[in-house]
Design goal:
alpha+beta, single chain, Beta-Lactamase, 5 helices, six-stranded antiparallel sheet, about 160 residues
């Protein structure tokens, strides 16, 4: 019997924590985090946008799913809202979100979680899209918040050059 999606997300916490603690390359860790959630859930798109402080926008980071927008800008879309408001954004129907940036026409609902460094600054957002309307439960968002916390707590320990 297949476990409910929330249980699969909760089961990711121990192995993802071990992966993130065992590797110092931030790019590698974000790639594994995105792949773990994508594989466990079957959601349409799972990935990260990183804050580009020089250009004052979000730049595409590691992800799983179809080709994505490379840059997202302040005041436009769900990811920018999570970044600017420093708050989780849960959008049951992206067509109802004013200013939604449609990187994929198949995306119908979305959750975006800000990734904070140890100083409480938003350094990235974790963007998750579903091809179904209203596809994220409160429990799933809670599990995603737990996974995002694993990324946040290690962020300042990672290196970003290769």
């Amino acid at each position: 019997m297949t476990l409910p999606r929330v249980a699969r997300l909760q089961q990711l916490v121990p192995p993802l924590k071990a992966l993130l603690e065992g590797e110092c390359c931030g790019w590698t860790n974000l790639a594994n985090a995105a792949a773990a959630v994508f594989s466990a859930t079957g959601w349409h798109w799972v990935g990260f946008y990183l804050v580009d402080e020089v250009k004052d926008n979000l730049v595409l980071g590691p992800f799983q799913g179809p080709v994505a927008c490379t840059r997202l800008f302040r005041g436009k879309g769900v990811c920018a809202s999570a970044w600017e408001q420093k708050k989780i954004q849960v959008v049951p129907d992206v067509q109802e979100f004013p200013g939604h940036v449609a990187c994929s026409s198949a995306s119908r609902s979305e959750v975006v979680l800000p990734v904070l460094n140890e100083d409480g600054k938003v350094v990235a957002v974790w963007d998750i899209d579903s091809a179904k309307v209203n596809d994220f439960t409160d429990a799933e968002v809670g599990a995603l918040l737990d996974l995002t916390g694993l990324v946040s707590v290690k962020w300042n320990d990672w290196t970003w050059s290769i």
